[in-house]
Structure to design on (653 residues):
């Protein structure tokens, strides 16, 4: 296959100490309009899987434990 | 890729603003109707009003404005090319909708006497109603959806409509962006509410999702309407917005204007009389930006501390709340310096401008059983309240249509073809990525289609789009999410070509910067005082035709006709 993965620093960070995804929470994943968040199957924590963010903030606003922090994506900040 | 078959009477495509309203109103009209609201995102937080809204930009409230005044204002702002009956259908229902939203719990600003606190931003009349506590819009809509028992399917990307023997709508197709399951939904009618085509051009930052519009809105609705045989109107009348540079969101002069803020040049001087977004206003903005007086800024640093505090409260908690975060990182402080602005990439959006899927005053498109509301439809300058009003009209029209229509036969060949088209990128193990196709298309749009429009550049652009279309046949997706981006890239290519073809057809200049054609720099009313319609010909290619402007309901006199041509601040000899 002639496809490479280019690394990029994503704008959304989840505080794993606060995230309660292992208890069944998926709120941030549910609300993101661009569907770029996911739960890591190994760590059982939410994370940003795709660098396609509108910096709109539902994920941060709706998280019940305040675990999500959204920065403005690097290319435009 | 499992196939899921569903049956409904009415499918509403897009659950942002106009969509939920259409679904609720169809159910209210006929509670027996089976109504599905389907969205590629999650209806709880989808679309332009995901985080709420700063205010109503086009409220027609008794005592502040009349429907006739509003129709006149929009006719003039749009250089005369409007279907006044359709604008009137909005204006006449505007106040009723505000009162209904008020009853549902939406908070509008009111004065001491309890009257709506309407502000003046437009050139002629007063239509802006602030919503400083407007962040609960989506919650309120969701409650109404539940109350009306509308069924909801989230995370399904609708890609194509199915049409029957007489060209009428008989179904909707799409796929789940998490499982890639293929959906075939038989129905009698559909309402498209997929929002603007906001991902045609590339933001100056180069970040694909750094768009003005919610990037979910990439022109899927425009593309599916085209492929179903619908007419699209005035696509050469682009949307181009004045925005916070790089952040690419509203600055926002509608909010700050009534407080004394304004758009200024690098000398801190006002250069436009009116901050209402129109093609003429964008032309002045562009001239200032490029003409030696740039950059252009939002100026607030002359305002009192408490006024700035109030502005910050609205702008940094509502609509695009990350504005505050952006300013902080840049060291921007409204009190201390002006905020740099820039012009956006192009798009199609009747919410702010005037182009989209053609509809009449009942929300009907040219395809039987197909309706469209909001930013994707063609009623000009419709904004959020227009999406609600037309959502309601579409919901009601569609419910009435369903009552005397039987379900049509679906074409199995068309279903198989669409399933194969969607499946293809998943079946390849090598090829170009959706990111590459999308990035290149949008970069070419900036290079060749961003106004000023030049015929030769447009011709080159069209050739390059053809090349990318060929490349797109080799797109590969390694998971359902990438498949969503791949299918979106096809819609973006369709929209880019539509933008180019419509622009080449209208050989005059109109709507200020939106259709400033260097090879035909003057307005030519003798030949072009008309709408343009784009549709599919027998071979599936794009064709263009003219459509007469419908007879006016509200007369416009000669003096008023040119009001929007005089937006530049007149400088006296002493001041210069
Ligand atoms: C940043 C910003 C600020 C604004 N400020 C104001 C303001 O202050 N006042 C005002 O009156 N107006 C404002 N507007 C305009 C107003 O928000 C819009 O005109 C209105 O919300 C459009 O509604 P809509 O239903 O057409 O689109 P949206 O509400 O955007 O809904 C479109 C929906 O379609 C879905 N969708 C898209 N493609 C597909 C597909 N293929 N399959 C399934 N679903 C799909 C999306 O997920 C989304 O939910 C603003 C717009 C923006 C972007
Ligand atoms: S919403 Fe918060 S707690 Fe829930 S999964 Fe996301 S980060 Fe974790
Ligand atoms: S800011 Fe918006 S787009 Fe970005 S991850 Fe959060 S919800 Fe998704």
């Amino acid at each position: 296959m002639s496809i490479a993965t280019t690394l990029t620093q994503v704008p959304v960070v989840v505080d794993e100490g606060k995230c309660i995804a292992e208890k069944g929470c998926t709120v941030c994943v549910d609300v993101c309009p661009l569907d770029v968040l996911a739960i890591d199957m190994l760590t059982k924590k939410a994370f940003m899987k795709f660098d396609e963010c509108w910096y709109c903030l539902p994920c941060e606003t709706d998280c019940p434990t305040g675990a999500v922090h959204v920065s403005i994506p690097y290319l435009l900040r | 890729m499992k196939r899921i078959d569903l049956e409904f009477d009415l499918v509403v495509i897009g659950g942002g603003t106009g969509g939920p309203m259409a679904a609720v109103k169809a159910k209210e009209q006929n509670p027996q109707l089976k109504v599905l609201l389907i969205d590629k995102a999650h209806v709880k937080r989808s679309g332009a009003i995901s985080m709420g809204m700063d205010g109503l930009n086009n409220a027609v409230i008794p005592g502040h404005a009349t429907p006739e005044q509003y129709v006149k204002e929009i006719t003039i702002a749009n250089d005369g090319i409007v279907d006044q009956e359709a604008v009137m259908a909005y204006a006449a229902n505007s106040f009723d909708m505000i009162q209904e939203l008020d009853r549902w719990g939406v908070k509008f600003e009111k004065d001491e006497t309890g009257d709506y606190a309407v502000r003046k931003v437009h050139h002629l009349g007063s239509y802006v109603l602030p919503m400083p506590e407007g962040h609960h819009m989506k919650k309120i809509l969701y409650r109404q959806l539940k109350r009306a028992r509308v069924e909801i399917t989230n995370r399904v990307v609708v890609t194509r409509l199915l049409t029957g023997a007489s060209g009428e709508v008989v179904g909707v197709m799409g796929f789940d962006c998490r499982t890639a399951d293929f959906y075939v939904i038989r129905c009698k009618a559909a309402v498209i509410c997929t929002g603007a085509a906001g991902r045609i051009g590339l933001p100056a930052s180069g970040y694909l999702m750094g768009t003005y519009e919610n990037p979910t809105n990439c022109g899927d609705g425009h593309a599916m309407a085209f492929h179903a045989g619908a007419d699209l109107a005035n696509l050469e009348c682009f949307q181009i917005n004045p925005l916070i540079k790089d952040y690419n969101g509203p600055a926002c002069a509608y909010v700050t204007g009534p407080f004394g803020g304004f758009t200024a040049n690098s000398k801190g001087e006002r250069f436009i009389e009116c901050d209402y977004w129109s093609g003429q206003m964008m032309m002045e903005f562009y001239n200032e930006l490029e003409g030696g007086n740039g950059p252009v800024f939002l100026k607030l640093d002359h305002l009192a501390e408490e006024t700035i505090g109030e502005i910050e409260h609205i702008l940094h908690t509502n609509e695009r709340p990350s504005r505050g975060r952006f300013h902080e990182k840049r060291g921007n402080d409204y009190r201390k310096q002006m905020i740099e602005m820039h012009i956006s990439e192009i798009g199609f959006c009747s919410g702010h401008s005037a182009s989209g899927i053609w509809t009449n005053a009942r929300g009907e498109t040219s395809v039987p059983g197909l309706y469209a509301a909001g930013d994707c439809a063609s009623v000009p300058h419709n904004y959020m309240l227009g999406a609600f009003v037309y959502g309601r009209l579409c919901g009601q029209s569609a419910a009435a249509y369903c009552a005397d229509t039987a379900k049509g036969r679906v074409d199995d060949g068309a279903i198989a073809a669409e399933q194969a088209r969607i499946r293809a990128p998943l079946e390849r193990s090598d090829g170009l990525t959706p990111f590459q196709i999308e990035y290149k298309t949008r970069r070419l749009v900036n290079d060749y289609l961003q106004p000023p429009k030049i015929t030769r550049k447009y011709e080159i652009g069209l050739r390059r789009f053809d090349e990318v279309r060929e490349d797109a046949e080799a797109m590969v997706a390694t998971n359902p999410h990438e498949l969503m981006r791949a299918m979106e890239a096809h819609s973006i290519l369709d929209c880019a070509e539509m933008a180019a073809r419509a622009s080449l057809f209208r050989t005059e200049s109109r709507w200020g910067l939106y259709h400033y054609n260097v090879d035909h720099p003057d307005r030519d009313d003798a030949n072009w005082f008309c709408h343009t319609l784009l549709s599919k010909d027998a071979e599936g290619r794009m064709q263009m035709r003219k459509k007469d402007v419908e007879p006016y309901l509200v007369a416009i006199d000669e003096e008023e006709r040119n009001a929007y041509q005089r937006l530049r601040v007149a400088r006296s000899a002493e001041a210069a």
In short: The helical segments of chain A are 27-31, 58-62. Chain A touches chain B through 27 residues (CB under 8 Å). Chain A has a mean pLDDT of 96. The longest helix of chain A spans residues 27-31.
